[in-house]
Design a protein that fits this description.
Length: 168
C-alpha cells in the first residue's frame, strides 16, 4: 500500500508528465508555424513519450492500490521567437523534471517505500537519456548558428525520429 504522501506525490508527477506532453505539443505546433516539419515531428514524438510516462505512473499507482486523481493541466506557452529558444526551454524543462523525479526517489527512501524506489529507477535513467538527447540537438543548433542549409538538413534529421514504447 502506498503512503498518503507518496500517493499524492505520484499523482503530482502524473500531472507533470501530462503537462510535459502539453508543452511539447505546443512546441510542435510552433515548429509547424515556422515551417520546420522535422522539428515539429520530433516534438510530437516527445509528447507521445511523455504520455507514455504518465501512463506508466498511472499503472503503478493502481497496481499499488492507490487512487489516481487527475488535476487540471496548466496552459503551456505557444510562442518562442526562435528554434534555439524552444530547444533551450526543452532542456530546462527536462532538467526540472529530473529534479522532480529525484525528489520522488528521496521521498520513497524517506517513507521506506522500497518498491517505489525501484520503480523510480527507470525514470532516473530515462532522464539521463532525455537530457543527453536534447543537449545533443542544442549542440547541433549552436554549431549551425542559423545557417539556412544547415537548418534544412537538421530539420530533415529531426523528422526521422521515432518513439517506440519500451516493453519494460
Ligand atoms: Fe517524462 Fe521528458 O520526462
Amino acid at each position: 500500500m502506498l503512503t498518503k504522501k507518496t500517493m499524492k506525490a505520484l499523482n503530482g508527477q502524473i500531472n507533470a508528465e501530462i503537462y510535459s506532453a502539453y508543452l511539447y505539443y505546443s512546441m510542435s505546433a510552433y515548429f509547424e508555424s515556422v515551417s520546420l516539419p522535422g522539428f515539429a515531428h520530433w516534438m510530437n514524438m516527445q509528447a507521445q513519450e511523455e504520455m507514455f510516462h504518465a501512463t506508466k505512473f498511472v499503472g503503478y499507482v493502481n497496481e499499488r492500490g492507490g487512487r489516481v486523481i487527475l488535476d487540471a493541466i496548466d496552459k503551456p506557452p505557444f510562442e518562442w521567437g526562435s528554434t534555439l529558444k524552444v530547444v533551450e526551454e526543452v532542456l530546462k524543462h527536462e532538467q526540472k523534471v529530473t529534479g522532480l523525479i529525484n525528489g520522488l526517489v528521496d521521498l520513497a527512501n524517506k517513507e521506506h517505500d522500497h518498491a517505489s524506489g525501484i520503480f523510480l529507477q527507470w525514470f532516473v535513467l530515462e532522464q539521463v537519456e532525455e537530457e543527453a538527447s536534447v543537449g545533443a540537438v542544442l549542440g547541433k543548433l549552436k554549431l549551425i548558428n542559423n545557417d539556412s542549409s544547415g537548418m534544412f538538413t537538421l530539420d530533415q534529421e529531426m523528422g526521422q525520429r521515432v518513439f517506440t514504447p519500451p516493453t519494460k
